[in-house]
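Q: Predict the assembly, please.
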Amino acid sequence: MAGTAVSELIFFITALMVSSAVALVLVDVIDRYAEDIEESSSALKGDMQSRVTFINDPLNVPYDPASGNLTYYLKNTGTGALSMTDIVVSANGTALSGTSVSVKLLSGGARWSSGSTVEVVFPVKGLTTSMDVIGWASTSGLNSAGASRGSAEDSFVFRVREV
Amino acid sequence: MSGSGVAVSAAVITLGLISGLMLAGPSLDSTLNDLKDARQGASDELIEIKGTSFEVPSVKLNTTTNVLRINVRNTGSTVIGLSDIEVLVNGTITAFQRSGGDFLYPGMTSELVLNGISGTAAVRIVGPWGISVQTDEVETER
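A: Predicted assembly structure:
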């Protein structure tokens, strides 16, 4: 009898320990899932607020054949700010970013806010006025604290005009 | 004892489930607010874009003074900030001066003046949201 009571006590304690472990795992999993959902929704909000548009004249995109410099004009047509340091541009299969690309905010200031335009100059070799070129640009959206949130991209087909 | 063990185990697991859901509550609230804000913002944006339009009734280049005058008329229902406008001449963004105030109200026409322009082939006016009008019909005058 005493042996039965002891073994039942052991089973009881074991059951308690196992159920506690399960409960802790449940709490942890639900908490992580909720955090993931929160991050995903923040990223989605960033994507919806971030938009960039090429405003170049597609038939007259400025190109200096001597230096190989091609000039893009990108307008922030979203409602949030965009990053000038995360810009990636591409033309005719050449993609560049970072220090290879010169970015200037035409309105002055330090923040590429909604409605502002940047001039992006980067080298691309071998473009001619008779070529149809596919251009592409992307960058990150920024939240009010300046952290990356979402992304924006645009593409167009163009011809260059030698300057 | 075994019956009470099962009951207590079930109670502990249920408690864990409820605790997890309570901890997840603030995150889910924040998620719903983000999605609500984003949906509202997208809806407001669409309404503004729909109401934004403009036309370029005339572009005149004085070949003696090299001054280009562009008339822009707001044909939409929203107000256009003139600081949101870019003018591209032959593909290059060119600075301009404007008369009147900083805003182009619905139905209003504003004249944009660009100096030092010669040999103009194409003029492109870009407004808010990237909406643009392009013309290569440039009247020349002396």
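The two ends of chain A are 101 Å apart (CA to CA). Residues 93 and 134 of chain A are 8 Å apart (CA to CA).
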